[in-house]
Specification:
With 325 residues, this protein is of the alpha/beta class. The chain contains eleven helices and eight strands. Strands 2-1-3-8-7-4-5-6 form an eight-stranded parallel beta sheet. It is globular, with a radius of gyration of 18 Å.
Length: 325
């Protein structure tokens, strides 16, 4: 079988888009079901396997407080920056509070802003962190303190770089923070495909919610997702797609209950990217959950998202929507 990365040689070892990464993405959680060390392991794997070279990486700045406050309340931002969360707020967040964790959240938000800007320029932009879709304006939930994707969307809208946005969320858990933040916003279309019988208990409605039964396999999952993405893109006609790429629909995930394979997840990514690319819609990707028993499986699934983006970028050469204006 030929190496799947052979075709990258035409770009002199450079990807046709940029990867956004900062060593500070690690939340330093220690022994925790959320393997926050995965961020640097993904970056290392991409270089080691020849998918990316050092010049393919961009280093983000932390998001400005002004940008965070476009989504989050001043009270929540103050609590995060001063470490004055209540015991119940920390319990709901489900990760220990630390200065490193807060800095990582600000960096992830800056990374998603940069990935969005890169996508508008290059057609794709990939943040190797982020996807913290459970964060609400005034509190955090489920390992998510700051909603980096919402922050990025609001910054791009503020800059008048885009107006209409679609968020396609493929984490095994419903994107409750995303749905709540954009509930009354006609400029942002939210689509979440997730396991119905899983966290969170309360799922505010997205524009489209695809609720998967327990142990759904590749075929059933893709049979629901791809037609829904096609319809949403055709009807809403967004100027950018933010993709929240969960590794946790994987059949061996500790916090998931679906039965997707690695090949199925890679097909998921590629097909969503193809639908956007055919329509000239830039794609900004972020990571999301991934809690496989073997961390190598989680790393492989996330790496495959980048590989799928590259395959689609090469198979469907096109200028970005921003370049067409």
């Amino acid at each position: 079988m030929p190496c799947p990365y052979d075709r990258f040689a035409a770009f002199d070892s450079m990807l046709p888009f940029k990867l956004v990464y900062h060593k500070g993405y690690d939340l330093n959680l220690g022994e925790h079901v959320f393997p926050s060390q995965k961020f640097h392991l993904i970056a290392q794997a991409l270089v080691r396997e020849g998918v990316a070279a050092q010049e393919d990486f961009l280093t983000p700045d932390a998001a400005a407080d002004e940008d965070i406050l476009r989504v989050h309340t001043a009270e929540w931002v103050h609590k995060l920056k001063t470490g004055t969360l209540s015991a119940s707020e920390i319990m709901k967040l489900e990760i220990p509070y630390s200065r490193e964790a807060v800095e990582a959240c600000w960096l992830a938000a800056g990374g998603s802003i940069l990935a969005g800007q890169s996508a508008l320029r290059d057609g794709f932009g990939c943040n190797l962190g982020g996807g913290f879709h459970h964060a609400y304006p005034g509190h955090g939930e489920g390992f998510c303190a700051v909603h980096d994707v919402a922050v990025a969307i609001r910054r791009l809208q503020k800059d008048a770089a885009i107006r209409k946005v679609i968020v396609v969320d493929t984490d095994v858990h419903h994107g409750n923070g995303t749905a709540a933040i954009f509930a009354d916003d006609d400029s942002v279309f939210t689509l979440s495909i997730h396991q119905e019988n899983n966290y969170p208990a309360y799922k505010p409605p997205s524009d489209v919610d695809l609720e998967m039964a327990d142990r759904v396999d590749d075929d059933e999952y893709l049979g629901a997702l791809i037609p829904a993405v096609q319809a949403a893109l055709d009807e809403f006609q967004p100027e950018i797609l933010f993709y929240v790429g969960g590794a946790d629909p994987f059949c061996e995930d500790q916090l998931g209950g679906l039965s997707l394979t690695k090949n199925g997840l890679r097909t998921r990514d590629r097909k969503v990217f193809e639908e956007a690319r055919r329509r000239g819609i830039p794609v900004a990707t972020t990571l999301a959950g991934g809690y496989a028993r073997r961390i190598d499986d989680t790393i492989r699934i996330h790496v495959n998202t980048i590989v799928a983006a590259c395959e689609v970028a090469l198979a469907f050469p096109s200028v970005s929507a921003a370049g067409q204006k």
